[in-house]
Write a structure and sequence with these properties.
Oligomer: single chain
Structural class: alpha/beta
Largest sheet: 7 strands, mixed
CATH superfamily of the largest domain: ATPase, nucleotide binding domain
Number of helices: 16
């Protein structure tokens, strides 16, 4: 039985799981900080990811013989801008996916270059989280740093480069740069011209399940990994998380209830979304997918619990939520602006309808409902472009809560399931590693063999009807506040 490692490089922590015969047998994680130097900014030091990676491997090595690992692959937070100079030194902190500083650059791309051309060149319109507007921001505000750039990469590509020495990326993660032609699966020449960057500054792009090399001697000596261990490039967290739920092929959907919230539908063919309300990306299985992303899903609940209530007792918080009604009360989860489907970095969160009868439990329930309504907004936008699913698998921290799962099922009006592992992203990386090493002929074969449903949640018809009315008011509140 061969051993594989799956690496999940998240926004708040890095996790590595050890899998044998497709089953996770061990795992370890390490946290690292996120910096917010100014309002709307979000940065991390890439060297913190490396330190966490090496530290986790050292801990795992005490319980496992890492020299027996056959392959490793990666699930990485998307859209983070990592810049290296000619000596492979990090030029500045990575600008993360939830950073909104590049609003003017985003407006330039959408309004001056034009959304029609952007969609034609890349398959998507500009969002502040994407890498293209961030590069323009660096070019405008830090010209000395921009001139030093020799390598431009994504967060997980930084680890891939350090472990293998190969400057590589994959189609799923590259799809979120806004200088990648999704339909053509290659870098977009017109966008490179707009940004003032060259192909030589960009990695070679592979399918997510491809092995791009083996561990380099320096990293092997540092960690105990075998020089023969294959490095499979992996992909962006949403695509790899979808692999970890078996969301591959036509007509399948998964939902992520993590720090951000995602509604993800897989497809065997490229789907053109002219409005840009949804992201149209390459999938990690060699196909394509459409994705709606809200910036603060679990992030909104974390803010409410940690910053306002000063608690980390989530079970008690959810119990209070379950006993409340939140009648006439709404929460807009736009505490970091919003991406899909409204594309409004200036949107802000709020409670609406608050009165003296509402208590702590009501406000908590309103926060959880608001997160579900944000996901419903993405779900309804997918329906509007012809994507129809009556079931979905759910991953992320929120999926552990039965109350949250049932509420989301009632609001969306579809059957939801929780899979038999909570390690969606890491498990997806394991499947990619096994495919890249030849254990499975296709990613789909690995998913069919290893991913199973654990339990189901079906919508209540009366609750769905009541939530449909409340969802309409949710959308009206946003429109009214935007006009104001």
């Amino acid at each position: 039985m061969k051993t594989y490692l799956g690496v999940d490089l998240g926004t708040s922590s890095l996790k590595v799981v050890v899998a044998r015969d497709g089953m996770i047998i061990d795992g370890e994680h390490r946290n690292y900080p996120c910096a917010y130097p100014e309002e709307g900014w979000s940065e991390q030091d890439p060297n913190d990811w490396l330190d966490a990676f090496v530290g986790v491997l050292a801990t795992l090595a005490k319980r496992n013989d890492l020299s027996l690992v056959a392959g490793i692959s990666f699930c990485g937070q998307m859209h983070g801008l990592v810049l290296l100079d000619g000596q492979d030194r990090v030029i500045r902190p990575a600008i993360l996916w939830n950073d909104n500083r590049a609003t003017e650059e985003c407006a330039y791309l959408n309004d001056v270059i034009g959304t029609d051309r952007l969609v034609s060149w890349t398959g998507n319109i500009a969002f502040t989280g994407f890498m293209a507007p961030k590069l323009l921001w660096v070019k405008r505000h830090e010209p000395e740093n921009f001139m030093r750039i020799r390598k431009i990469m994504l967060p997980k590509d930084y680890l891939v480069y350090l472990i293998s020495g190969v400057f590589a990326s994959d189609v799923s993660d590259s799809s979120g740069t806004l200088y990648f032609n999704v339909a053509g699966r290659r870098w977009s020449e017109p966008m490179l011209s707009v940004l003032g960057i060259a192909k030589e500054q960009l990695p070679t792009v592979y399918d997510s399940f491809q092995a791009i090399g083996t561990v380099c001697p320096a990293f092997a000596a540092r960690t105990g990994l075998s020089l023969a261990m294959k490095v499979v490039v992996g992909g962006g967290d949403q695509a790899v998380g979808a692999i970890g739920t078996g969301t591959v092929g036509e007509g399948r959907m998964c939902i992520s209830l993590g720090t951000s919230g995602v509604v993800f539908a897989s497809s065997s063919k490229y789907l053109h979304v002219a409005s840009g309300s949804m992201h149209s990306f390459c999938h990690a299985n060699g196909g394509y997918h459409v994705m709606g992303v809200m910036l603060s899903a679990g992030g909104s609940l974390n803010w409410w619990a940690n910053e306002i209530l000063r608690t980390d007792d989530y079970p008690s918080l959810m119990a209070e939520c379950g006993g409340a009604k939140a009648d006439g009360l709404w929460f807009l989860p736009y505490i970091n602006g919003e991406r899909s489907p409204i594309n409004d970095p200036h949107a802000r969160g709020c409670f609406q309808g608050l009165n003296v009868r509402h208590g702590r439990g009501d406000l908590t329930r309103a926060v959880v409902e608001g997160i579900c309504f944000g996901l419903c907004d993405c779900f309804e936008s997918m329906r509007a472009i012809g994507i129809s699913c009556d079931t979905a698998r759910v991953i992320g921290g929120g999926a552990k809560s039965d109350l949250w799962m049932q509420m989301l099922s009632d609001i969306l009006g579809i059957r939801l399931s929780r899979i038999d592992t909570s390690e969606g992203g890491a498990m997806g990386a394991v499947i990619l590693a096994m495919t890249g090493c030849g254990e499975y002929a296709t990613v789909e074969a690995g998913c069919a063999d290893l991913i199973k449903d654990a339990c189901f949640f079906s919508p209540d018809a009366m609750a769905h009807a009541a939530y449909a009315l409340k969802f309409m008011k949710y959308k009206a509140i946003y429109r009214a506040l935007k006009q104001a």
